[in-house]
Amino acid sequence: MQDIKIKAKNVQVHYGETHAIKDVNVEIADKTVTAFIGPSGCGKSTFLRCLNRMNDTIDICRVQGDIQIDGEDIYDPKVDPVQLRAKVGMVFQKPNPFPKSIYDNVAYGPKIHGLARNKAELDEIVEKSLRKAALWTEAKDRLDAPGTGLSGGQQQRLCIARAIATAPQVLLMDEPCSALDPIATAQVEELIDELRQSFSVVIVTHSMQQAARVSQRTAFFHLGNLVEYDETDKIFTNPEDERTESYISGRIG
Ligand SMILES: Nc1ncnc2c1ncn2[C@@H]1O[C@H](COP(=O)(O)OP(=O)(O)OP(=O)(O)O)[C@@H](O)[C@H]1O
After folding, report:
1. Which of 26, 99, 129, 152 has a CA between 20 and 30 Å from the CA of residue 71?
2. DSSP assignment of the chain
3. What sequence ranges are listed for the domain ABC transporter (predicted)?
4. Residue-by-residue pLDDT tens, the chain, 253 positions
5. Complex ipTM above 0.90?
6. Shortest-distance Cα residue to atom 28 of ligand 1
7. Residue of the CA atom closest to atom 16 of ligand 1
8. Residue nearest to atom 11 of ligand 1 (CA)
9. In the chain, what are the domain boundaries?
10. Residue 219 in contact with ligand 1 by CB distance below 6 A
11. How far is residue 103's CA from residue 125's CA, in Å, rounded to a whole number?
12. Residue 206 alpha carbon to ligand 1 centre in Å
């Protein structure tokens, strides 16, 4: 078992009157892929967004409880959410490159966070991030071309390169393959497996096959509750809870 990277205690989330997350306690390991699964509306994305305070941007959303990353309370008023999101990167369902060149998409974060002292260092970060995101070979001769001109799968890898360019410690992925074809999906899944050498990766997925392929730990959510959290193999072959069993066998969801 790897070290614990994220500790969430008694987390509750409300959107106005809707109680979306009900007293969730979970410990997420470093250098591990953790999958969040469960039926639509069970709270997977809401809980994922708690981990880098993306819910702060939703007026009616109220987050309670305690979330620590490396022992530090991420909801402490001293924490700057912009800095936090550089440390806890995020990749969304739909590839959303900036309307800028491939180079500038990746260079943007390191620039605003002052991670490069000069152009040569910035070039190096861009190349390293694109290599890590398995996009360098396809992109190296067109770094000035717009990011939006890439294929869907390439755009998603560009967004992954952008997220890892700020040297995050955690990468959150909210259904990162749902807009991709099977080949692009396989490439991103392969990449996720490599990324876990460097970070803690947390992925929300609708696909149980994907969770089984990419993750080592799986958390099953149902109606805002974290029902079961265990080794991925255990969840899919021998779950403890009847609700998990029903979901993985296709009876609910
Ligand atoms: N911005 C929002 N405003 C109000 N309610 C919201 C908002 N986002 C989510 N909810 C509600 O919170 C609950 C959990 O939603 P969430 O999107 O986290 O579920 P999910 O498991 O990720 O679903 P899906 O798999 O369909 O994406 C649902 O009842 C949803 O309607």
Report:
1. 129
2. -PPEEEEEEEEEEEETTEEEEEEEEEEEETTSEEEEE-STTSSHHHHHHHTTTGGGGSTTEEEEEEEEETTEETTSTTS-HHHHHHHEEEE-SS----SSBHHHHHHHHHHHTT--SSHHHHHHHHHHHHHHTT-HHHHGGGTTSBGGGS-HHHHHHHHHHHHHTT--SEEEEESTTTTS-HHHHHHHHHHHHHHTTTSEEEEE-S-HHHHHHH-SEEEEEETTEEEEEEEHHHHHHS-SSHHHHHHHTTS--
3. 6-248
4. 679 999 999 999 999 999 999 999 999 999 999 999 999 999 999 999 999 999 999 999 999 999 999 999 999 999 999 999 989 999 999 999 999 999 999 999 999 999 999 999 999 999 999 998 989 999 999 999 999 999 999 999 999 999 999 999 999 999 999 888 898 899 889 999 999 999 999 999 999 999 999 999 999 999 999 999 999 999 999 999 999 999 999 877 6
5. yes
6. 41
7. 43
8. 20
9. 4-248
10. no
11. 10
12. 14
The residues, any chain, with a CB within 8 Å of residue 168's CB and separated by 6 or more, are: 86, 87, 88, 89, 199
